[in-house]
Specification:
about 70 residues; mainly alpha; about 35% helix
Length: about 70
């Protein structure tokens, strides 16, 4: 059950919100329960750890996080 606790939505706003909730529920039901969410490549820590350390120098601080 969904209940509006604050405000006065128009029928169109309420229909849009319910459509989003239903679409999310259908998507969640279609996913296997034991499925692991894949990691995005940019957030994978091994991408940064695999690179060699930056060489010392005046601009080394800029290369400490994003390897070139």
């Amino acid at each position: 059950m969904i209940k509006v606790v604050r405000g006065n939505p128009t029928p169109e706003e309420l229909a849009a919100a319910l459509a989003v909730v239903r679409a999310r529920a259908v998507t969640a039901a279609a996913e296997p329960s034991g499925a692991e969410t894949p990691r995005d490549a940019w957030s994978d820590p091994s991408r940064i750890a695999a690179a060699r350390l930056p060489q010392p120098g005046p601009t080394a601080w800029g290369r400490t996080y994003w390897p070139s």
